[in-house]
Amino acid sequence: MPTSAEAPAALRVCDLTAGYGAGTVVKGVSLEVRPGERLCIIGPNGAGKSTLLRVLSGLRPPVSGTVSLLGEDVTHAPPDLRLRRGLVLVPEGRGIFYGLTVDENLTMGSVAFPRTQELENRERVLAVFPVLRQFRNRLAGLLSGGQQQMLAIARGLMAGPRVLMLDEPSLGLSPQAIRELVASLEAWCAAYGTAVLLVEQNSSVALRFAQRAYVMARGEFVYAGDTAAMAADGSLLKYYLQ
Amino acid sequence: MLAFLSSLFINGLVTGSMFMLVALGVTLFYGVLRIINLAHGDVFMVGAYMAFYAGTYLHLPYWAVVIVTMMGCAVLYPILDLLVFRRLRGSELGPLITSVGLSMALESLVQGIFTANAQAVPSPYLNNLVNIGTVSVPLQSLLMIPLTLVVVAALYVFLRRTRTGLMVRAVAMEPRVSQLMGVRPEYVYGVVFVLAGLLVGLAAATMAPELYVTPTMGVELTVDAYIVVVIGGFGNVEGAIVAAFILGLINSFVSGLGLADWATTIALALLVGFMMVRPSGLVAERLGVRQ
Amino acid sequence: MNGSRRFLASFLPAAALCAVVALAALLFADAYLAQVAFLTGITVILVLGESFAVGNMGQLLMCQAGFYGIGAYVSALLEMHGMPPYLAPAVGITCGAVSGLVVGLAATRIRGHYLAIVTLAIGVIVEELLNNLQGITNGPIGLVGVPTFFGPLNAGNQADYIVVVWGAVIVVLGCLALLRESRFGWFLRAIRDSEAAAESIGLRIGTYQVATVTVAAAVAGLAGALYTNYAGLLVPDLFSYGLSAQILATAVLGGINSFGGAVVSSLVFNGVPQMAQVTAFYQYLIFGVVLIVMMQFAPRGLSQIGVYAVSLARRRLLGWGAGQPNAATVRRP
Per-residue pLDDT tens for C103-130? Predict the structure, then answer.
């Protein structure tokens, strides 16, 4: 992999191990997200994908291994520090604040940053997700599933991330909603060069969106490569059937 | 008759204001930290002694007594949190048990310093009677109502219009997700303890002149605060405001019927009834919608 | 370990400790110490009931003083209307059990924080009723001239009082240990550890909660009946929320669900201060501070410290048991 002093990897994970109690769920995983790259991790239920993201976001401590963000070690940094350095997780199941309005949810996304950044980012985000503009004062709990997922991602973007991590954003959405979501996200990435780390069970969506993919099974990466090659290679299916 | 009823009504509003200031802290604790704090009334008691000390020994003017008491409680509470509750974050019944210990410790400490004798807090407004129609009420009592309205409005603006208030509401709803937004939960918890201290300090400074200040006065108030919080719904700020006035009016009118001894029993029966029939309280939950 | 060995393991050490305390009181106590010994016995009974309920149910009961008061007042009133004193224990147990049943049924679906608050309220309601039902309870002045087992405590009858109360302690210990090691106790702990799992194997959570509250209340009722027949005088203040708080505190300090811990903690935090004639003020202060400190560093109470001390002693002095997991670190309540 080409790494140079001028452009360190946006996110680099080395030999990361994590788990709950005695059980190891993530076993010595290494990966690299380059600046502006769209990367996905696909794999079956229980492969350890969500646990990996929780560790990367700082919600769970790793057992061993290192995580570095833009060349800085953040292995033991608390979640708020990672966020300020540009690593943002949009959690599984959206995790939006149902009792807050759309606008308040967006504000929460940039609450760790100065207010000037909030105003600037809000305009940018609403430009990419114009649907949210018409519901700015509505309670988030009253939005449709697709709109809630848009809100969750928009709230993540409010922090102006260098690396955006998405956990199963397509879960429970209609194909139409997924298409809109992907289009908005692609527009954002094209405009601001944000790197995306997408974790999905829905491999067809993930492979179309990402440039590179890792396949995760039983806590390990069992395959890595360009998505174009992968989509052509039918052997991918077998990792799901193991 | 009308005069009698309206005096009961005003009395109920005054009592309700005090209940509200005390219960708001309790409901914030539950909404944001998910803890039951049975020492809250005892912090009121400590506040009342602060007011007593500031007024009687330091000879401060009354407005300064109010400010000193509010500040004192707002400083005291985060310290108590650090000493008593912080290590038990996430435990369900642990903080409840330590708060029982805290209540005992505060009561006996204050008794050690000020003895168990009842004390009186001086206030220039105590003997100032105001005539409203045919009813005359001490200015001290009347002071409570506008002060409480101002404080509630300020709290509302804080929670609804400021970023820190937004963080408080967000942590109440989804603490883990809030952390992902870069909110440090301990910061929000600290804000809640300061707020609870300010509110209870104001209640103590304004109510203490009308009460006998004793080391054991807090227990009863803790019970009243929990009655309010149960009726209003645990963690529900709007519910607590409504319920406090309902309870204040019930208290006042039951006493007016000559059944003062039964006021607490009736209120407690209401608590048990609400718990059995409608544990979510009168008003649908807003602040803490976490299941 | 099979059931009967478990029973003996939880019953014998605590019972032996009680027997030693009773024996010491019988041999050495003067009139004042006999009074302390009697009252400490009452405390032990109250704390055992609380410790059993909290430990096995995983819920806080904050109205032991209320059940205690009901047992005391009902047996006192019946005796004042001619019931012979030796029936008092049965009456106390029955009254406690009935009131526990009523509370339990009212709170069948209430758990956790909410149950703690509801029981706190019920405890205060009982105290208020004792004050307000003046026609029956004589209000704040209280009941005077209640018959007693052996007359006012004196050098001649102090041994009788000590035997009665500590005998009752040992009987209560036996019953609670039996319950704890029976299927009933087993199911209770299953519910405590996972309501969902217990429900999925068909346990009715509400029923078990009602039963446990009833048991704790019956034990407190017995304590009330015994107290009445010793004191001959009852006032509502004896049964205040403060007492419930102290009972809970003593149970927690001893280590929830540890019978030996309950006995030791009652002795240390109630018996010894009274023996040393520490004023109620210092007793309360020590209580509060120790409770706070204990919850920070050893939330499972004296029993946790005991287990830790024993395992440390084994490792240091005897060099065995090093491989065993430290029971104190296994589970936090």
Answer: 999 988 888 899 999 999 999 999 999 9
Amino acid at C170: I
Measure Cα distances from C22 to B269, C49, C164, C174, C220 in Å.
42, 20, 10, 16, 20
pLDDT in tens, B47-60: 999 999 999 999 99
**Ramachandran area for residue C235 (φ above 0: left; ψ -120 to 50: alpha; else beta):** beta
Which residues make Cβ contacts (< 8 Å) with residue A91, sequence separation at least 6?
A53, A152, A167, B176, B177, B180
Sole residue written with tokens 């803790």: B222
Rounded to an integer, what distance in angstroms lies between the CA atom of residue B200 and that of residue B70? 7
CA C101-C107-C108 angle, 5° bins: 85
Check if C103 contacts B (Cβ < 8 Å).
Answer: no
Amino acid type, A136: R
End-to-end Cα separation, chain C, in angstroms: 23
Contacts of B156 (CB under 8 A, 6+ apart): none
C-alpha–C-alpha distance, residues A114 and B89, integer Å: 29
ipTM, two decimals: 0.91
Of C234, C235, C269, the C-alpha closest to C251 is C269
Instruction: Note the pLDDT tens digit of each residue in A194-229.
Output: 999 999 888 888 888 999 999 888 888 888 888 887
Indicate whether C78 pLDDT > 80: yes
Find the helix packing angle between C31-57 and C158-181, rounded to 10°: 10
* A151: Cβ contacts below 8 Å, ≥ 6 apart: A94, A96, A102, A105, A106, A129, A132, A140, A143
How far apart (Å, rounded) are the C-alpha atoms in residues B205 and B224?
18
Contact: chain B with chain A (3+ CB pairs below 8 Å): yes
Domains of chain A: 11-241 (3.40.50.300)
In this structure, what are the phi and psi dihedrals at residue A70, rounded to the nearest 5 degrees?
A: 50, 40
C-alpha of C298 from chain center: 21
| Backbone φ/ψ region at C194: left (φ over 0), alpha (ψ -120 to 50), beta | beta
Q: Which amino acid would we find at residue A92? A: E
Domains annotated for chain C, with CATH where assigned, are 3-278 (1.10.3470)
| Tokens read off for A208 | 């179309």
Residue B68 pLDDT exceeds 50: yes
CB contact (8 A) between residue A107 and residue B289? no
> What distance lies between CA A27 and its chain's CA centroid?
20
Most C-contacting residue of B42, B100, B255, B272 (CB-CB within 10 A), to test interface: B100
Q: Determine contact: B185 vs chain C, CB below 8 A.
A: no
CB interface of A with B, residues 72-101, below 8 Å? 78-80, 83-84, 88-89, 91, 95-100
Domains detected in chain B: 2-277 (1.10.3470)
Q: Do B181 and A78 touch (CB under 8 A)?
A: no
From chain B, pick out residues whose CB is under 8 angstroms from the CB of C265.
Answer: none
- Whether the CB-CB separation of A141 and A98 falls below 8 Å is answered with yes
- Please name the residue that has the structure tokens 């220039």: B124
**Exposure of C91 in the CB half-sphere (CA atoms within 13 A):** 23
Q: Is B92 on the interface with C (CB under 8 A)?
A: yes
Which structure tokens are listed for C15?
A: 């019972």
